[in-house]
Design brief:
single chain, 464 residues, mainly beta, five-stranded antiparallel sheet, 3 helices, 30 strands
Length: 464
């Protein structure tokens, strides 16, 4: 079968590759007839759907030469030239493999499945595939070749960013024709690194940190080593060093504590499977550790005041005495007494508030007036003066109002009455009744007395 898969199948010169500088061969009429029949038969079967050239491009549109390279993280796409494209589509397979790129010079069946099966049988590793829209349909990925209307140019979508390694692209169409293999490599990307110290100068024995930013490359990972050198050159043994893991393109050192002197900081990125290592420029981060300042005398303590309160209950009312003591002379100013019911701090304001001026460091509130039984407390605040600061919310002191009960009447003791042995009679015109020791007897008492006299008289007669 005629080779229709490689550019070598199209010989000659010119923009379309159809002119030849070779002299035509002289053929017999029989040979010419056989050749013409073969060409017509091939055109009917294969020529109309050949895939005969491919070209790899980066996402930015730069062509990647066969065997060329691109940095890790690059996105690529592929193009394929097809002959008489109407009604056909092209599938693009991207392979990541260490195997040699296979060559193709024929059709492997008459369907896309037969071509895919053949490629799978070669043991190629994990293809990434893309199948643009059908050739010849509006809005598809196949466009007419401006140099030859019988040809179409198929373009794949972008393949994902690639890691470092060896790759090749192969395109085939739904007639089972496989195009040439296009190789390229993905090499490690080269990021850059910059650093920034937390401060350019500190006084001993202070500390500082350094932050490194790794940019460019293919999503760099790994670690950054921070080296601090004495002097202005980044050479010799570092005066201090530590490492930190890179996260989202950034890494920060642990704190450095150094003696007095001049230093230079340099950061080194380790690199990873897709990125080369990188080192920050020397001389961009000078750092100075200066002598500590001389010790200063400790500041004197500012004057301070304290507040105490002593409530006094007077029956159903109360007063409060506030005392303010100071460390630098007698406090002046005012104190305010506010009365709350309940217990601190969740009490309820009663509406009583009184402000008094300190005299000799103390002040007494006015009376609260009569209060109902319950628990109360004063909140006392001090206004402060030119020497002392205000004290608020101040001091509190709980007190209790107890209800007052009415006194019970005293118990009286009644002396039992004794009947006298004799009783004086009242004269004519005296008070009615008989009195004994000045007391007036009732009618019942007189009747009892008369009975007793009669019984005595009768007993005397019997005895006589």
């Amino acid at each position: 079968m005629k080779n229709v898969f490689s550019k070598s199948a199209r010989v000659g010169s010119g923009t379309n590759g159809r002119k030849s500088g070779m002299r035509p061969l002289r053929l017999s009429s029989i040979s010419m007839a056989l050749a013409l029949g073969s060409v017509l038969a091939f055109s009917a079967v294969a020529g109309a759907c050949s895939v005969y050239s491919t070209q790899v491009y980066t996402a930015g549109g730069s062509a990647v030469a066969a065997g060329g390279s691109v940095p890790a993280g690059t996105t690529v796409y592929d193009t394929a030239t097809v002959q008489d494209p109407t009604g056909y589509y092209v599938t693009f397979n991207l392979y990541s493999t260490s195997k040699a790129c296979p060559s193709h010079d024929s059709s492997y069946g008459n369907t896309a499945a037969s071509a895919a099966g053949y490629l799978a049988g070669l043991g190629l590793v994990t293809p990434q595939s893309d199948t643009p829209a059908e050739i010849g349909k509006s809005g598809g990925n196949i466009v007419a070749d401006p140099a030859n209307n019988s040809e179409g140019l198929g373009t794949s979508d972008n393949f994902p960013p690639l890691a470092a390694g060896s790759y090749f692209l192969i395109a085939y169409n739904n007639a089972g024709y496989i195009g040439p293999c296009e190789t390229f490599t993905v090499v490690k990307a080269q990021p850059t690194i910059k650093t920034q110290t937390s401060s350019s100068s500190i006084a001993a024995p202070g500390s500082f940190t350094d932050t490194a930013t790794v940019s460019g490359g293919a999503s760099p990972t790994g670690s950054v080593t921070f080296n601090v050198y004495s002097g202005s050159t980044c050479s010799g043994t570092p005066a201090a060093t530590n490492s930190s893991t890179l996260s989202s393109g950034s890494a920060t050192s642990t704190p450095f504590t150094l003696p007095v002197g001049s230093y230079e900081v340099q950061a080194v990125y380790s690199g990873d499977s897709n990125n080369l290592g990188a080192t920050s420029a020397c001389g961009t981060e000078p750092f100075t550790v200066t002598s500590p300042p001389p010790p200063s005398s400790p500041p004197s303590s500012p004057p301070s005041a304290s507040l105490s309160t002593t409530p006094t209950v007077n029956g159903l009312s109360a007063t409060d005495i506030a005392t303010v003591s100071g460390t630098s002379g007698m406090p002046t100013g005012t104190v305010t007494f506010t009365l709350y019911s309940g217990t601190s701090p969740g009490g309820t304001a009663t509406g009583y508030s009184n402000t008094e001026t300190l005299s000799g460091g103390s002040a007494t509130s006015t009376s609260t007036g009569a209060l109902v039984a319950g628990s109360y407390y004063f909140v006392v605040t001090y206004s402060g003066d030119g020497t002392y600061s205000a004290i608020t919310p101040g001091a509190t002191e709980l007190f209790i109002i107890i209800p007052v009960s009415a006194p019970k009447p005293p118990k009286t003791k009644t002396t039992p009455y004794k009947i006298p042995t004799s009783a004086p009679q009242t004269g004519v015109g005296g008070s009615a009744g008989v009195t004994f020791n000045g007391g007036l007897l009732s009618i019942g008492s007189l009747m009892l007395l008369a009975g007793l006299v009669a019984m005595a008289f009768t007993r005397r007669r019997r005895n006589a």
